[in-house]
Amino acid sequence: MVNKSTSIQIYCAGSLREVINEIGSRFQAEFGPEVKVTTGPSGLLRERIESGDKPDVFASANMDHPRKLGGSGLAGPTVVFARNQLCVISRAKYGVTEENLLDKLLDPALRLGTSTPVLDPGGDYAWAMFRRADEIKPGSFERLTAKAQQFGRSSAFPPVKPGVLSLIEAFENDKVDMYVAYRTTARPLLGRVAGLAMTELPKALLVDAFFGLTLIKGSCSEAGHIVLYILAPEGQKMLADYGFIPVYEIS
Hints:
Blueprint: E1 7-13, H1 17-31, E2 34-40, H2 42-50, E3 57-60, H3 64-71, E4 79-91, H4 101-106, E5 112-115, H5 121-136, H6 140-147, E6 149-151, H7 167-172, E7 178-182, H8 183-190, E8 196-200, E9 208-215, H9 221-231, H10 233-241, E10 245-246
């Protein structure tokens, strides 16, 4: 039985903000415990946990950060609970397609943005895509990493601290022409900023993003219930509704 008076604290990647908030609201309405959600770059959240923060659940945009917590005894095993994929968001006037994507990325006249590697898995995945590009056109990795402006997070929504531009502001303030982002980030962004387009990555550049979920050591017993809820068809369907790729069959 779930203790309805318990509060469950979830730390989750910024790219999961909307869906985890909805999952938490539905879980709370159905089972009773209050669900509190804190979002930010997964690497930053991991550092906060290592420094003493005590959430119950950590939902990361990669597997490495929760596994590192597990390896240091701060968390349990990590399970994949969703997948995502990269895309490129650009100004529609540049006519970016799957066929010319790499040439456009390498074009010195077009300003490129990514989230910050290590701090944010979105940046790590972008760097992995750049390494794939290097196999197609040697020298691409060096050129792309040199030109990429690194932003503090990949989310289209407000940043976690003052002074860091959101992706919306980066385009609205004319700071970037192209941005390597999750497909789930592109959908809300295109609905809020005019004149943008999303381009899928060609197969040769495709990078899958695996999202990991873990229970933090000392978490309340009710936290296990919401983890199961996320992995169950109800949670997996909500993830799919927000554009994530579920890892378990939805019946």
